Every structure is written in structure tokens, then in C-alpha cells.
Amino acid sequence: METLAGKRVDVVGGGLAGCEAALQLAARGISVRLVEMRPNTPTPVHAGSSLAELVCSNSLKSQKPDSAAGMLKGELAALGSFLLNAALSCAVPAGGALAVDRERFSCAIEGSVASFSNIQVVRAEVVGVRDDGALLVRDEGSGPEESSAANALSPAPDALIVASGPLTSDALAASLQQATGAESLAFYDAAAPIVMADSLNGDVLFRQSRYEDEGAGDYLNAPFTKDEYERFIAELVAARRVIAKDFETRELFQACQPIEEIARKGTDAPRFGALKPVGLTDPRTGRRPWAALQLRAEDAHGMAYNLVGFQTNLTFGEQQRVFRLIPGLEHAEFARYGVMHRNTFVDAPRLLDATLRLKRPIARIPVRIAGQLAGTEGYCEAMRSGLHAALCTCAELADVPAPIPPAETAFGALLAWATDPATVDYQPMHVNFGIIPPLEARVRNKKDRYAAYAARGTKALEAHVARLQSLGLLAESTGEESAHLHADNAAGQDAPATVSPAVCAKVDGLGRNVAFTASEGTMRRG
Ligand SMILES: Cc1cc2nc3c(=O)[nH]c(=O)nc-3n(C[C@H](O)[C@H](O)[C@H](O)COP(=O)(O)OP(=O)(O)OC[C@H]3O[C@@H](n4cnc5c(N)ncnc54)[C@H](O)[C@@H]3O)c2cc1C
């Protein structure tokens, strides 16, 4: 888009939303400054300095087209999402879900960002926004309390996207809260533990994907008898936790309810969630177990496994004691213990319009909030939110109407819910069919109903893509071609926006030196 050449946008946060936004803006010729505070200012959860680091599960959820998560992926693909593209290139086996090798995923995004000469990555903590829109960053020499010792990044941009995520630094959260005059909430989430593959008991665990009798199976399953299950639950609810009273009184991130909190609701509650046995057959008995925990590979080589759905607030010692009561995990070595974290988000229904723009200006330039800070929960939701904020920023700078996705699409429904002033008790939410507009004719059968939502969503998406095209907002190659998405960078070169052959080197989550080439998928360990 010619009108966008010479425009500048600053993006705060090099996470999922921020990276997607930066890449989309750069692909349309805008000069982008992507400001990420790590590694100088760490978060309690991120392990390193990589852009787009996945902090918890490595799963991006279902790929089934007739699920809300699958619809969302279809929407990301149709709009040429760089991050979905990277995820597909780093996929690890996960049944019907899209799961990634997290290190290769980050490496791929870093390669894409580096391939755009019109993206400048600045490593600094943003502590505020000046009236003219210039970002205030912490002076490296100042301590955490001295937020007044800040430098302004110049020149001031034409627009700003804040995508600093659930772990937005305290200084920026305080500044946003002061500027908006509204409450931005902070509460706790929980992350699941990871265990080493070679410490697991292969005589007890069996490999199978749920509802799939044939094939090798992507998950390891730990089967419980009734007695084993009841003993485990009794120990789980009695175990010591890190945050007790304080935590119980807070609202929790829906998808990350700690397993002990779920068990506290009733002995059988986990058997309908993380420990559900349906669709599994224990080869030792030929029967469905009483309960079962699924373990999913964390990396392409299957060296470490994630305890699926076992986010927890237990102390590390208690995690070792109690989780070793799980059949097959008697001698489990923990590569990472489950941990509790803060989650920050703004009151979107009152603060944001449908373009994610702050309704009450905090600077003389348009400011948008994207990702989990806007309250849309989940990895793919954050990517889509960053993409939406970027498209709306482009539209505003080019003086064309804002491209609001129809409510019949998965993200359109989430956006409509999240930015509707009528929404009360706003809590982070992922895409789901509970907030999508009802079908014209009632469809009783759940499977048929979901298929009807998906078919209707596909039509609405096609119309949305056509509108983006007519507004001149689509980058040249999108949709099915997204796997080969190319974008003109500022130098006018045709730069590959997909996985670049960048070599990443870092210490992995298991404390080993790792070097690998994202595009080749090769991994060397030292
Ligand atoms: C503990 C935990 C577990 C989670 N588990 C899952 C899960 O299993 N599945 C799922 O789908 N979602 C999960 N989520 C939600 C997940 O964080 C979001 O879905 C997604 O990462 C949000 O993307 P984002 O871009 O908004 O934020 P992030 O990916 O967190 O990116 C924000 C970036 O901004 C940076 N930043 C923060 N403050 C500043 C500042 N002042 N200046 C500059 N940079 C700053 C951060 O360092 C970070 O890199 C979890 C969240 C938490 C906290």
C-alpha cells in the first residue's frame, strides 16, 4: 500500500501478538520498532530472550475445521499469519492438535523478523507513553523503582500497538492503569510440569492417541485403577501449595485451572477433565482405565514430556512426591516444575473499540492493545489479535474503513464479545462456540451444529477476505499460499517471510546447550 510507505509504528512486546503485528505491518511497507524487554528485564515465566516464546504448553490446540480452535487456524491461514506459518513448519506429533517444538518455533519467528530490514528490534523495558506517542523506556542504569529515569524513543511513531502480554512489567502496567483511569486486573495462572522421558516406566505407560486404536499414537498414557486414583486425589488435595488463601479467592485463567483446584471441587472432577479415560484402552487389561493422565512430547525428539492439563500451584517438593504417585511416574525426573504466574489484562469492553483501539486517547496517536493484555486468551488468539491490530492500524493510517471480522468467524465472535460494552465481569476467554451467534435454524445434534458453525464461518471469512482485498489491506500472498508468504521489505527486496535459515543457539529448558537451524529442523546438543 503506497500510502503506508514512510509511516512508523511502535509495537511493545515481542511475544505472539507483538511479533505477528510487527511482521504484518512490515509486510505492508511500514517501518516498525519492536520493543521487547527481555533479557534485560525478565518475566517470572519466560525462560530466555527469544521472541514469541511459548510460556506453558506447546500445543496450539485442535486443527479440526469444525472446532472453534480449528476455525481460528483457518482464519489465520487465510489472512497470511506469519506465526501460524512458522508453527506449521515446526509441528510435532499431537493427534488432531497443532503442537510445536517451541525452540524451533521461536527461532523461525526470529528469522522472519530479521528478514525484514524495516523492523528494528529494541531490547528495553517500556515504562510509559509520552503525550506525543513516544515510548518511554527504562534507562539501563536505573533500578526497578526508578521509573522516572526513562528515555524517550525518537522519533515518535504514527501509531502504537501495546502487546506486552499477561506478564506486562509492573511499571508499564501502572502507567497504563494511570493513563486509562480504569482498573487493569492482575491475578494468577498456573503452568504444568515437564518430566524427562528416560525416567518414565514404559511397562506401565502406554502409547495411544485418544479414540485411535491404530497407529503408534502421539501421547503416553498413565492408567489409574480406582484405588490408585482415589489415593492420588486424596494426596493431591492435601498437598502443600505455594499460594494458599490468596489464590483461592482469585478468578483463574480458565484453561489453566490448577489440577488440585479442580480436584477440590470433587474426587471425580479430574476424571472429567485432565484425567478422563474415554477413548483409551490399556493394552495390559484390554479395558478402559478408571482414569488416565496423558503426557505429550515437548520436543521433536521426545526427550521430555508435558503432563497435559496438570497446571499446578503445589510446592516443588510436593509436586515430586504427589506426581510420583501417578502410575508410570514412580521415578519421574522433573525437567520443569509447575509454577503459578500473574495475568494482567485490561477491561476491554469499556476501554477498547472493535479495532482494539483505546477509546479514550492516552497520546496524540492511535494506541491499540493486542494479545492477552486485551483479554483474548490463548496462543492463536494472541496471534489473531496482533494481526487484527496491525490491519486496523494500517486501515487508519491509510484512511480506509476498519476491517472488522464478521461475528460468524471464530475471532469475530470473540472480538464482538470482548469489546461489547454490555459484557460484564470481563474475564480472558478463548474462541468457543458459546459466544458465536446462534444458527438461524436450530440444529440439535452437536456434531452437525459445529459443522454448521464452521460452514457459516467459512462463508463469512471469504467475504471478509474479499473486503480486505477491496480495501487494499491484504498483503499480496495470503491464504493457501501463506506457507510461501513473501513480503516486500523497506529495501524493496522480496524477502522470504517464512522460516529463515537462522541458526539459534541457547540453553534449552533442560539446561543443555542447543544449536539448531530452524528451517532444516536439525538440532545439535552440546
Ligand atoms: C503462566 C502462563 C501459562 C499460559 N499457558 C497457556 C497455554 O498453555 N496455552 C495458551 O494458549 N495460552 C497460555 N497462556 C496465555 C499466553 O500467555 C498467551 O496466550 C500468549 O502468550 C499471549 O501472547 P501475548 O503476545 O499477548 O503475550 P506474550 O507472549 O507474553 O508476549 C508479551 C511480551 O511482552 C514483553 N513485555 C512485557 N512487558 C514489557 C514492557 N514493559 N516492555 C517491553 N516488553 C514487555 C514480554 O517479555 C513478552 O515477551 C499462558 C499464560 C501464562 C502467563
Automatic annotation (TrEMBL):
Residues that, per the record, bind FAD: G13, G14, G15, L16, A17, G18
Ranges for domain MnmG N-terminal: 9-392
Reported function: Catalyzes the folate-dependent formation of 5-methyl-uridine at position 54 (M-5-U54) in all tRNAs.
EC number: 2.1.1.74
Transferase found in the keyword field: yes
GO biological processes: tRNA methylation; tRNA wobble uridine modification
Cited Gene3D superfamilies: FAD/NAD(P)-binding domain
Reactions catalysed according to its record: uridine(54) in tRNA + (6R)-5,10-methylene-5,6,7,8-tetrahydrofolate + NADH + H(+) = 5-methyluridine(54) in tRNA + (6S)-5,6,7,8-tetrahydrofolate + NAD(+); uridine(54) in tRNA + (6R)-5,10-methylene-5,6,7,8-tetrahydrofolate + NADPH + H(+) = 5-methyluridine(54) in tRNA + (6S)-5,6,7,8-tetrahydrofolate + NADP(+)
Organism of provenance: Candidatus Aveggerthella stercoripullorum
First and last residue of the signal peptide: none
Protein name: Methylenetetrahydrofolate--tRNA-(uracil-5-)-methyltransferase TrmFO
Main location: cytoplasm
Enzyme class: transferase
